[in-house]
Amino acid sequence: MRSRCLRLPAAALLGLAALGVQAAPQAVPDTLAQRLLACTSCHARVDARGNPVNDSYFPRIAGKPAGYLYNQLLNFREGRRQYPLMTYLVDHLPDDYLREIAGHFASQHPPAPRPAPVDATARLLARGRQLVFDGDAARKLPACVACHGQRLTGVEPAIPGLLGLPRDYVNAQFGAWRNGVRRAHAPDCMAQVTSRLSLEDVAAVSGWLAAQPAPADARPAAAIARPLPLACGSAPERP
């Protein structure tokens, strides 16, 4: 019987297919890229036509410094950041595998999305630009560029870029730091910054950042002037 089946003509095989007899499923390659495809269902990516997507909430992770991505995976696993789905995904993953995941996404550099329209007054946007480039010395607020780089694309190995992030996401992260839901390695410099920002300042910074186009090459800078204006446990000074 087996030999006869192997010799079925093409017309017979087509007939079997029409009756719902399906061929064996194609094997899925067991690669890191294949395993991590699920991540792109939430995090901003390119669509089927290759156009960049700017999600209304979830951040793009492609191209972020590997050290930053690794730190965030650790933070989710160890409870310093609170998002049940992320905690569930990384809860039992070892450090080495988290480093692989971070390196995989850090090596990707898709085109940046176009900025989404921002509903904000000119005065609010001007305040946001001031805080980003100059800070506010009277309130001991350093400029964002002093840590995140003059182009705001982040700094290797562990400081993230700020351009291309959805406004709602930026607002949510400031809220999480303010409420203690998001934390980082001590000293937590972003918690200090957030404590000195008014709610209007948060809206100004998030609005201005969301309105800015990312540069064509949004790779993080290789280095930045040290020491940083605030001690940061996630980006410690080199000895």
Helix content: 40-55%
Q: Please tally the β strands and state the result.
A: 0
Protein structure class:
mainly alpha
**Uncertain regions spanning at least 5 consecutive residues:** 1-8
Q: Mean pLDDT, nearest integer?
A: 88
Fill in the CATH topology: Cytochrome Bc1 Complex, Chain D, domain 2
Tell me the span between the first and last alpha carbons. 75 Å
Written as H for each helix and E for each strand, in order along the chain, the element string is HHHHHHHHHHH
Report on the structure:
By secondary structure, the chain is an all-alpha fold. It has one domain (32-211): Orthogonal Bundle (Cytochrome Bc1 Complex, Chain D, domain 2). The protein has eleven helices and no strands. The protein has helices at residues 2-6, 10-18, 32-35, 66-78, 84-90, 95-106, 122-133, 145-148, 167-179, 189-195, 199-211. Helix 4 crosses helix 5, helix 4 (66-78) crosses helix 6 (95-106) and helix 7 (122-133) packs across helix 11. The protein is globular. The protein starts with a helix and ends in a 28-residue tail after the last helix. The model is unreliable at 1-8 (pLDDT under 50).
Write out key terms for the chains shown.
mainly alpha; Cytochrome Bc1 Complex, Chain D, domain 2; 11 helices; 239 residues
List the helices and strands and how they pair.
Layout lengths: L1 H5 L3 H9 L13 H4 L30 H13 L5 H7 L4 H12 L15 H12 L11 H4 L18 H13 L9 H7 L3 H13 L28
Helix pairs in contact: 4-5, 4-6, 7-11, 9-10, 9-11
